[in-house]
C-alpha cells in the first residue's frame, strides 16, 4: 500500500500495534453474558476506523462461544471493545480472551478521548435494577454521528465488575446529552465500594445459655451487646441498621433505619426473658425475621443487604436438632437467594461450627469467637469487609469515526 506523498494512510512500520490490557465476561442473566476488553493504542495520532476482534468464552470443558466483530480504535489511550448478550446456554464462562487482528488501515485522527467529556454520573438502584445516569459533553465544533458509548464499573482495586453500552445517533456540537445504562440484576453485592450504602440486620441469640458464663452482668450476652453496639455505631450516615433477637421464637426489635444510634441503644437494652432460661434456640426463625426485614419496603434499593447473625449454641427448635438445623439452613439458603450477604458468628468452644459456617454466604464470612472478648474483634473484621475504602470507578468511554481524516 502506498502510504507516502499526499496519501493520508499511515505506514504500519511507523506505528505501534495495539495491545489487549484485559478482558472479562459479565453475567447479565442466566445463560447470557456481556464481554468487554480494554485495548491500548499508544500512538499519539494514528488510529483506525475499523479493527477486527474476536472474544472467546471458555469453561473447564473448553470453548463455549466465539464472537467476532469490528470496532473503532481512536488514538492515544485505552478503549473498550464491547460485545453484548452472548448466549452460553447452561455453561458458565470462567475465562474470557480477546484477540485483535493486525490493523489493516492506519489513519491520522484529530481527536481521541478529549473529544468528549463526562459532566456527571450517578449509579442508582444498585440492589434492584441498576441504572447509571450520565451527562456526556461533545467538546467539538462539529456534529458527531454514530457515537458508541461503553460504561464499565470498577471496584476500588481496579477490577471490572459490570459493563453496558448505548449509542447516540446524532450529537450536536458543544452540547450536553443525558445517557443511561441499565443492568437487569443487582450489582450491589459485587460493588463493595463504601460509596454504595449498606442495610445491615443484626440478629442476636438471646436464649438462656447466653448467661451461662456469668449471671450478673450476664455473660457472654453483655460483651456481645457492647460489641454489636459499637459495630452499628461504625456504620456510615447513609447505611441503615435493624435488630432481631431470637430464642424459642424471633422478634424484630428495630426496623431498618438510618437512626443507627437508636438501634445501637436498643442493642444495649437486650435482655434474656426469664421464660427462655430453659427454652430453645430457633435459629431459623431468627434468619427468617432478619431476611423479611431486609426485603421489606424499608430496604434502600441503592444499598446492599447484609445480615450478621450470632449464636452460642445448637439449633434446637423447631423439632429435634436435625430438623431445627435443616429449617435454619433452608432459611439461610432462601435469604442468600434474595441477595442477602450473610455473616455468621459462633460463640464458644462447644458451638457447632460446621452448622454455623453453613449459614454464611462464604466460608470467609463465618467466624468462631472462643471467648466473649473475641466478639468485638470479629465485628471489626466484618466492618472492614462490608465495603472497600476508596471510590468505585465508573469509566464512560465514547468512540466515533468523526475525528478521522478522510481517505483520498
UniProtKB/TrEMBL annotation:
Residues 199-386 form the VWFA domain. It holds the Pfam family VWA. It comes from the Bacteria. PANTHER family: COLLAGEN ALPHA, VWFA DOMAIN-CONTAINING PROTEIN. This is VWFA domain-containing protein.
Amino acid at each position: 500500500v502506498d502510504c507516502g506523498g499526499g496519501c493520508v494512510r499511515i505506514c504500519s512500520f511507523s506505528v505501534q500495534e495495539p495491545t489487549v490490557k484485559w478482558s472479562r465476561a459479565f453475567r447479565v442473566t442466566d445463560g447470557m453474558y456481556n464481554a468487554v476488553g480494554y485495548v491500548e493504542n499508544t500512538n499519539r495520532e494514528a488510529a483506525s476506523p475499523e479493527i477486527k476482534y474476536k472474544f472467546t468464552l471458555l469453561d473447564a470443558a473448553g470453548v463455549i462461544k466465539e464472537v467476532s466483530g469490528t470496532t473503532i480504535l481512536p488514538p492515544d489511550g485505552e478503549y473498550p471493545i464491547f460485545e453484548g448478550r452472548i448466549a452460553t446456554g447452561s455453561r458458565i464462562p470462567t475465562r474470557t480472551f480477546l484477540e485483535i487482528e493486525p490493523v489493516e488501515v492506519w489513519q491520522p485522527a484529530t481527536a481521541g478521548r478529549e473529544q468528549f467529556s463526562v459532566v456527571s454520573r450517578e449509579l442508582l438502584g444498585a440492589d434492584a435494577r441498576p441504572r447509571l445516569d450520565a451527562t456526556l459533553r461533545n467538546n467539538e465544533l462539529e456534529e458527531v454521528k454514530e457515537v458508541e458509548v461503553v460504561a464499565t464499573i470498577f471496584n476500588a482495586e481496579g477490577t471490572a465488575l459490570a459493563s453496558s453500552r448505548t449509542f447516540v445517533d446524532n450529537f450536536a456540537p458543544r452540547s450536553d446529552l443525558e445517557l443511561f445504562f441499565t443492568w437487569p440484576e443487582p450489582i450491589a453485592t459485587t460493588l463493595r465500594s463504601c460509596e454504595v450504602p449498606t442495610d445491615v440486620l443484626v440478629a442476636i441469640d438471646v436464649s438462656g445459655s447466653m448467661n451461662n458464663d456469668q449471671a450478673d452482668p450476664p455473660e457472654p450476652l453483655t460483651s456481645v451487646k457492647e460489641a454489636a453496639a459499637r459495630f452499628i455505631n461504625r456504620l456510615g450516615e447513609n447505611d441503615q441498621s435493624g435488630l432481631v433477637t431470637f430464642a424459642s421464637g424471633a422478634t424484630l426489635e428495630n426496623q431498618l433505619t438510618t437512626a443507627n444510634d437508636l438501634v445501637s441503644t436498643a442493642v444495649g437494652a437486650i435482655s434474656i426473658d426469664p421464660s427462655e432460661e430453659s427454652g430453645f434456640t430457633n435459629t431459623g426463625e431468627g434468619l427468617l425475621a432478619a431476611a423479611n426485614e431486609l426485603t421489606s419496603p424499608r430496604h434502600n434499593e441503592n444499598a446492599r443487604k447484609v445480615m450478621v447473625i450470632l449464636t452460642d449454641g445448637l439449633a434446637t427448635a423447631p423439632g429435634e436438632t436435625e430438623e431445627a438445623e435443616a429449617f435454619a439452613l433452608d432459611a439461610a439458603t432462601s435469604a442468600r437467594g434474595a441477595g442477602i450477604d450473610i455473616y455468621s458468628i459462633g460463640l464458644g468452644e462447644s458451638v457447632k461450627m460446621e452448622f454455623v459456617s453453613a449459614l454464611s454466604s462464604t466460608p470467609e464470612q463465618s467466624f468462631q469467637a472462643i471467648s466473649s472478648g473475641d466478639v468485638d474483634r470479629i465485628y471489626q473484621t466484618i466492618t472492614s469487609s462490608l465495603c472497600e475504602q476508596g471510590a468505585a470507578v465508573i469509566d464512560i468511554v465514547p468512540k466515533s469515526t468523526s475525528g478521522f481524516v478522510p481517505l483520498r
